[in-house]
Amino acid sequence: MEDILLLNSIERYLDGKMLPDEKAFFEELRLSRHGIDQMVVEHKLFLHQMDAYSDRTNLKSSLEYIHSKLSDTAEISSTEKPAGFTAKIVQLWSRYKRVAAIAASIAGVTALFITALAMYFSPAADKSELEQLSRDIKQIKQNVQVTNRTLKQVAEPKIPKAAMLTNGGTAFLINGDGLLVTSAHVLTGSGAIVLDNNGSEYNADILSVNKTLDLAILKIDDKDFKPLKSLPYSIRKTQADLGEELFTLGYPRDEIVYNMGYLSAKTGYKGDTSSCQISLTANPGNSGAPVFNKNGEIIGIITTKQMQAEDVVFALKANNIFKMIDSLKTIDSSFESVKFSSNSLLKKLDRVSQVKKAEDCVFLVKAYN
Amino acid sequence: MKSDTNEQLLLKGLAHSDSKAIESIYKDNFNMVLSLIINNNGSYDEAKDIFQEAMIALYEKATSESFILTCQLKTYIYSVCRRLWLKRLQQLGKTTSGIENFEETVSVDEDLETHERKNAEFSMMDRALNSLGEPCKSLLKAYYINKKGMSEIALQFGYTNADNAKNQKYKCLMRLKKLFFSQYNIGE
Questions:
Q1: Which domain covers residue A136, as residue numbers?
Q2: Do the Cβ atoms of A276 and A265 come closer than 8 Å?
Q3: If you average pLDDT over residues A131-158, what whole number do you get?
């Protein structure tokens, strides 16, 4: 029973229920008897644990109570589905479904409209293009037929009836009176005619042929030919620079053909200094064709191309024209009056207009026996 | 900040076991925790369990002297529940492909350590009480947990007077202390 009394006293002491006298006595007792002191500390710890235990138990039961209360009033979910989150979505949905419906129908109508437009327009546009294209082709065919006819009509008179065509090439005017330059190897026969880009034929006299330079001078001797006041291009005495952009007009076929390229070497085949190498597409018939730089100055005359290599074409440098004319002047006094235009009128024009102006001065040469 | 002071009030209420405060916290956060658990291989009951444990941890934190909440209440509860659930999953040997954070989290390791210790103490006391046997268990529970007065207990348990009940209580208490400290000292 003594233990029980002691425990009772300790509890009252810890609860602060002791009277001051009693408390003082008890504290004295604690100091004098270690066993009692230890019991007090132990019991204090125990009561603390007990308090914690009771707090927690009470909290647990109140949590339990609150949980069932809240789930009964549906303020929290009572099932597996997290109601708060779905509720939010449902809420949003109900709030915005009108807007969503309107937006969706607008989007749908727009999509349909665009699809209809696309279906209506795109095949139709394609068809008309196709039609146009085929009409163009018809027109081209007609044109071809027409030119053929005119060619046939014109082709007869100029070449003597017994003559055989031997060769063809390109020639170009070096003055307005009808003086032409071409390659010597073009003129293999005894005579030549020249044709302009419109297919008109003119008789031409072979004035001089220099086989070492591979250069020949022709003169148009035909009453149909109207002398020009000046030429659109000039002939350049100095060398062209490496990489300079070049273009040429020639007759690899019966129609004038434009090609472009660049100066790829300052010397010709095997280091020939009288010619240069250019890179462009040239075909038989381009011989004698003028090579222009971008200012419309003639820098050379196409002569040959290397067989094994692609786009390796050699052109005689243009200063050889002057050399030849100068040497002719000493022999023939009629060359005394020959003057060259020194200014190119093609400067700063775009390529299309350059070609348009120059093409009238470039002729197709047909040599015959 | 209004919400901050509001949360401070809620926590103060929680520390005093105010049921209104507990209810408010419960209402605001339970569904969040429920979706966390459900989305990560758990059930409704497990969610309830985890949430209530987090509430207890929060209560312990709120009642501790050095209590400071450095983040929003919601974030704290989420972080605690996330940790508790990960641990539970590990214990159950269940797998989850890593809980994605749909809320930000804060470090709650320290708080949970305290909580673990208190958990251990609680279960020690629980075991000791349960091995006491009746009527000691009910008597002590009535006095210490339900905080009933001695005369009320005497009436309830059928003692002739409060002093007898008191004597009985002390006998039971001594037995309980013995049981508790035998575990407690081993635990230490």
A1: 84-158
A2: yes
A3: 43
